[in-house]
């Protein structure tokens, strides 16, 4: 087939702004990547010869060198994650080593590295504006961190390491996805006593759709979470909890051996590049600066939260004994959520399930978009574009001048062919151009409570916060005004990237904001004042336990990437269990291996590896930054404009600490998060 024919036949090589998801098939992936790799290599060689053409548009061409390849790689990875199949998994597996090898080769290309250093010494480079000068500096730093100065043997080994890491981490993620999708448990209605009716209805309908009687239970959180929280059947809670713990350690899908391999490869890579460990390598260009600082940050929070954690657990134990008697068994992992919910209902006369009727998905989105219009001056409207599933929706974003600045897709509900969790990603990065504004394109995905029969999707308060969170990431992408693509939007330090997402969650607890969208899906009535007051009163219930769980994940991550020696005798799964054990109010089983399903750390070559602390780091930033909105008005347009101008529009065009100071006028207050959580008293 001729190159022109390939271009015509393969939709991945004919991408318009609206991606033709209705025509993209697994067999298109490898052909598209092969074609784009060949074209990108040609561009690379021309760039490496740049001194011969006086560096005309050198940095601009370098900035967009892999743009098409990256977009196709993102699309293939995305489809494997949302409509996975054997064919999509094979397609992704086929392209991973090719793309990984090329990206490593790109960073080690001696001609390009020489050209880049030569360009840095030219008058053109000296005359760059501050944003483009930062781009040049960070690009040089990336080449050095990527091994450009390594001898030939080192470059060869680095290529091998990166390719192997890409393959093994993909296998890790695939094992988690497959194991989660494979689990199902059919139970009679009698075993679901205490479980909300909406969950019973949904699981009954799911069983019918699978040709079975009773109720079909899965490990998707909209089912798993309510079972652990509400099911009176203790054996059922235990069965699901234990099934969740088996994810990542079943025969044929056992991730435990992969963890040591990944840690060993990451450590070798870091040492090859001149770093003590993988954390120092990853965090060098982030706000924390290194593994020691991140560890200190997490351990300081642990120390300051420990007393409140112990007090919460003593209170729960006393409540449990008063209800169940002194002869009742000790609280186990599958008991805590159940009894904590009963204690909360008793203490605050508040059950989160009472809120769901006021949070239909469509209403939540309408309210979110209205808040965004008031605070940030942008308008979101539903539009039309091909999707990868019938549930996919598509939207346009216009600024206050009516300019189309972005579009995005949403895909909110769980499927057996879709990975768990919630996430935002970008397909195209636009921004200011000579001819005007090129729009951005992104997506938001989740696994929220789905509609059931005639009942719309009714969200929990935490699911509402998740929708707001992911839209904060989307706004960071959509409102970017950085002319350099690689510095635009969410391409920032990972301990800064969660600030725009987490700050959005604050509006969910504000009465003025809730009045815009918290309406009963049947009656249209607003959220009653007394229910709102009980929700606010219960907001920080067991906040120390929630915080300690997050610390446990961050410290497990850092312990494995800083203090653990992959070449030693210790088992990393055992080490991880030892770290986590001190953060839970119950004894962990001897074979506890949650780390074997910890996709944030191990399902991509870097991912959140050595960076999970970023969530808490950014929570400090968001808790502190929202105090300005609270002080000046949560719908204050001037405050919103200041946040856009200092943070959302700026990407990585300046040091994140400087951007934060620009918005707040000072450095962050480290106590802001503990005060918001009720762990420290309000000043």
From TrEMBL:
Give start and end of each Oligopeptidase A N-terminal domain: 34-151
Domain named Peptidase M3A/M3B catalytic: residues: 228-678
UniProt KW Signal keyword: no
Q: What is this protein called?
A: oligopeptidase A
UniProt signal peptide? none
So what EC number does this one have?
3.4.24.70
UniProt organism field: Deinococcus metalli
Write down any Gene Ontology CC term.
Answer: cytosol
User: InterPro entries given for it?
Assistant: M3A_DCP (IPR034005), MetalloPept_cat_dom_sf (IPR024079), Neurolysin/TOP_dom2 (IPR024077), OpdA_N (IPR045666), Pept_M3A_M3B (IPR045090), Pept_M3A_M3B_dom (IPR001567)
Provide the coiled-coil residue spans: none
Concerning its family, UniProt says: Belongs to the peptidase M3 family.
Q: Which GO terms describe its molecular function?
A: metal ion binding; metalloendopeptidase activity
Q: Specify one Pfam family.
A: Peptidase_M3
Reaction(s) catalysed by this chain's protein? Hydrolysis of oligopeptides, with broad specificity. Gly or Ala commonly occur as P1 or P1' residues, but more distant residues are also important, as is shown by the fact that Z-Gly-Pro-Gly-|-Gly-Pro-Ala is cleaved, but not Z-(Gly)(5)
Q: Tell me the cofactor note.
A: Binds 1 zinc ion.
């Amino acid at each position: 087939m001729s190159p022109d024919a390939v271009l015509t036949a393969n939709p991945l090589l004919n991408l318009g702004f609206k991606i033709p998801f209705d025509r993209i098939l697994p067999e298109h992936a490898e052909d598209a990547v092969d074609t784009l790799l060949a074209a990108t290599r040609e561009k690379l060689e021309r760039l490496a010869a740049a001194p011969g053409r006086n560096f005309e548009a050198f940095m601009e061409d370098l900035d967009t060198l892999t743009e098409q390849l990256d977009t196709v790689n993102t699309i293939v990875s995305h489809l494997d994650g949302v409509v996975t199949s054997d064919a999509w998994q094979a397609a992704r597996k086929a392209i991973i080593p090719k793309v990984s090898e090329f990206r490593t080769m790109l960073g080690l290309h001696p001609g390009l590295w020489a050209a880049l250093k030569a360009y840095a010494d030219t008058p053109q480079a000296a005359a760059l504006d501050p944003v483009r000068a930062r781009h040049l500096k960070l690009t040089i730093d990336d080449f050095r961190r990527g091994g450009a100065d390594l001898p030939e043997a080192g470059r060869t080994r680095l290529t091998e390491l990166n390719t192997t890491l890409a393959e093994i981490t993909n296998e890790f993620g695939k094992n988690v996805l497959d194991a989660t999708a494979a689990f199902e448990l059919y139970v009679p209605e009698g075993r679901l006593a205490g479980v909300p009716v909406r969950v019973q209805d949904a699981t009954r309908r799911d069983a019918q759709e699978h040709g079975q009687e009773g109720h079909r239970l899965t490990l998707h959180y909209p089912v798993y979470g309510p079972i652990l929280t509400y099911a009176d059947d203790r054996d059922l809670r235990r069965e699901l909890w234990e099934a969740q713990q088996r994810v990542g350690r079943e025969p044929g899908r056992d991730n435990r051996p992969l963890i040591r391999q990944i840690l060993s490869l990451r450590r070798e890579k870091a040492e090859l590049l001149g770093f003590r460990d993988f954390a120092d390598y990853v965090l060098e260009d982030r706000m924390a600066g290194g593994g020691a600082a991140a560890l200190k940050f997490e351990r300081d929070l642990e120390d300051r939260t420990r007393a409140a954690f112990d007090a919460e657990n003593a209170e729960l134990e006393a409540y449990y004994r008063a209800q169940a008697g002194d002869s009742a068994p000790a609280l186990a992992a599958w008991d805590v959520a159940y009894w904590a919910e009963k204690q909360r209902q008793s203490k605050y006369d508040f059950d989160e399930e009472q809120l769901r009727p006021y949070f239909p998905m469509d209403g939540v989105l309408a309210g979110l978009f209205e808040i965004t219009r008031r605070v940030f001056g942008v308008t979101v409207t539903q539009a039309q574009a091909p999707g990868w599933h019938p549930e996919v929706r598509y939207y346009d974003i216009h600024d206050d001048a009516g300019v189309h600045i972005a579009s995005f897709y949403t895909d909110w509900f769980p499927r057996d062919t879709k990975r768990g969790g919630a996430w935002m990603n970008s397909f195209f990065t636009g921004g200011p151009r000579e001819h005007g504004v090129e729009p951005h394109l992104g997506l938001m995905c989740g696994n929220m409570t789905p509609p059931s029969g005639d009942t719309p999707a009714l969200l929990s308060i935490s699911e509402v916060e998740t929708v707001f969170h992911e839209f904060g990431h989307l706004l960071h992408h959509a409102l970017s005004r950085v002319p350099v693509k690689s510095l635009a939007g969410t391409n920032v330090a990972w301990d800064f990237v969660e600030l725009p997402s987490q700050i959005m969650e604050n509006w969910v607890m504000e009465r003025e904001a809730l009045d815009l969208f918290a309406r009963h899906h049947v009656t249209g009535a607003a959220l009653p004042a007394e229910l709102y007051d009980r929700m606010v009163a219960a907001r920080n219930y067991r906040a120390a336990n929630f915080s300690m769980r997050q610390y446990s994940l961050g410290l497990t991550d850092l312990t494995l990437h800083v203090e653990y020696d992959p070449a030693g005798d210790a088992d990393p799964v055992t080490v991880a269990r030892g770290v986590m054990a001190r953060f839970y109010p119950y004894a962990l089983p001897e074979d506890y291996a949650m780390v074997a399903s910890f996709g944030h750390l191990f399902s991509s070559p870097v991912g959140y590896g050595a960076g999970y602390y970023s969530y808490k780091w950014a929570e400090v930033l968001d808790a502190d930054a929202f105090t300005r909105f609270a002080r000046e008005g949560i719908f204050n347009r001037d405050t919103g404009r200041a946040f856009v101008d200092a943070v959302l529009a700026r990407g990585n065009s300046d040091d994140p600490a400087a951007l934060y100071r620009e918005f707040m006028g000072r450095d962050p207050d480290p106590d802001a998060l503990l005060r918001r959580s009720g762990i420290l008293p309000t000043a």
